[in-house]
Amino acid sequence: MLSTKTEAVDLELLPARPRVVALIPAHDEAAGIAGTIEAMIDQTFVPEVVVVPTGLAGAASLVASYPVDVVDVALASGDDASVAFNQAWAQYAAVADVVLTVPEDVALPANSVEECVRELLGSEHSTWSGVGGAEAIRGSVLRDVVNGFDRPGPWFGDPADFDAELTAWLAEVADGSARTRDRAATIVALLPAHNEEDGIADAIRGLRNQTRPPDRIVVVADNCTDGTIAISLAEGAEIVETKGNRHKKAGALNQALEALLPTLADDDVVLVQDADSALDEGFLECAEGYLHDRRFGAIGGTFRGGEGAGFLGHLQRNEYARYGRDVRRLRGKCLVVTGTAATFRVKTLREIGSARVAGKLPPGDRRAGVYDTSVLTEDNELTFAIRHLGYEVLSPAGCTLVTEVMETWSDLWKQRLRWKRGAVENCFQYGLTRVTWPYWGRQLLTLLGVLVTFVYLGTLLWAGLTGSFTLQPFWLAVSLIFVVERVVTVRDRGWRHMLAAAVMYELLLDLFLQFVHAKAYFDALTGRQRNW
What we know:
By secondary structure, the protein is an alpha/beta fold. The protein has helices spanning 30-41, 59-62, 81-93, 112-121, 139-148, 159-175, 200-208, 228-234, 248-260, 283-291, 310-329, 346-358, 378-388, 409-430, 437-466, 473-488, 495-501, 507-526, and strands spanning 20-26, 48-53, 69-70, 98-101, 127-129, 135-138, 187-193, 216-221, 238-241, 269-273, 277-279, 296-300, 302-305, 341-345, 392-394, 400-403.
C-alpha cells in the first residue's frame, strides 16, 4: 500500500480514544493464529481483535479462550476467502477510525498499532504498512473505497489487486476526480411499524409519489401480528423484521440501522418516517437540498393532523396548524426534529453512534445504536445528540406531511404525557449545557403556566363559592388579547375556523394539556414508573 512518512501525533491530543479494529484471517494456520492474537493483546495500544474465518475449520473454538470477536460470515458454495473479507471490511468500515489487517501467522511488535494510529490519525495520511504484510487504512477512506468501487468490498482475492485499486483511487482523490465525488446520494426510507395495517399503504404511496422518490423503501416490522407485512410487500416495499426487540420504535430502528449503515456512503441519506404519516410530494427533494449544507445534522418536517376523531381531531388539527405557523415564522428553526419524519446524512448517524461509545453522548443501548432506547422521547433525545455534536436542525417550509391524530381523550392523554415527561427527562439526562438551556427555560415557563392555571382556577372557584365574582377591565383586556391570538394563529385552516376560534372553545384542550403537564412534572420529579 502507499506509505508516506509523517510527523507522529500525541495520542493524548486526540479528541477521544479512536476505534481501531484488527482483522485476522483464519485460513489454514491453526498454530500461528494464537501467536498473532497474543501479539495484538500485548500491544501498547490494544485494538479490537476480530477473527475472520476464511477456511480454517473450527476457527471459533480455536480462539474461544481469547478476548476476540469472530465475524459470522455466510459463504455460499464456490465462494472464496475474498468474499468473507469483503463482508468484514464493509462491516467495520462503517464504524472504525482505523481498520488493520494482520496475516494469521504474523506477530507484530508491541508498538505497531500505536505507531499505525499516530500515523493515520495525526495527518492526512490514508494508509499504513507494517511488518509481515500488515496493512491499515483510515476508516473514512475505507468507507469511500467500499462505496466507490463497483464491487462489494475493496479486496478481491489477490492483495495485489487491492493495492492497485487503492493506489488508483487515492490518485483520483488527489486530483479531484474520485469516482465517489460524482456519485448521486442514495436515499433510503425506513418506516418502523407495529401493527400499522390501516396506514402503511398510504405511507408507502406517499414515498412513491415524491418529486425525488427514495431509492429504497424499507418497512421495519416490529412484532407485527396484523396485515402490515403483507400490505407492505404488495406495495413493493422491502421488509426487515426485528428479532427479540423489547425497546419499541427506538430498538427497531437500531436493529435496522445496524444492518443498513455499513452498506451506505457518508453522503447518503436516511429518512425515518412514522408508518401512520404520509409525506407531501416535495418533502424529500427539499430535505435533500438542505442536507447539502454541512451545518445541518437533520432536516425534519411540520405536520398537519389527519382527518377523523370528531371534535377531538378538530382540536388537534388546530393545534398542529399553530405549530406549523410558528416554525415558518422562525424560518424553519425548531426545538425538536419530530419523529413523524426526519432525514439524516449517514455520516451524522455514524458520528452519533461513535460519540455514544466514546462517552461524548449518553450511551443509549451501549452498542453504538443511533437511538437511545432508555428514553421516552427518542426524537427529542436524538435532537439533543445532534446539536451537542455541533450541528443545527431545521424544519423548512417545503417539508410538510400529514400525520394521524389521537382518536380518544385517553389516547391523547397517554401521548402527551409521554411527550412532556420525555422532554423533561431528556433535560435532566443532558444537564444544563449551551444546547439545553433554552429547553430548560421552556420547561420552567410551562411549569409557571401550570401554576398560574391552577391559581386562576382556584380563584374562580373561590369567587363562585363566596359570591364575590366581578368583571375587571384589566382582565377583560387580557382576555381579548387571548381571543385575538386564537383567531390569528389558526389562519392556515381558513376563515371559518378563525371565526369559530373566537368562541374560545379550545380552552378545553388548553386546560387538558395543563393537567397533562402537571402530571408529567410530578411523575418525572418523583420517579414514578414509566408505562407507554
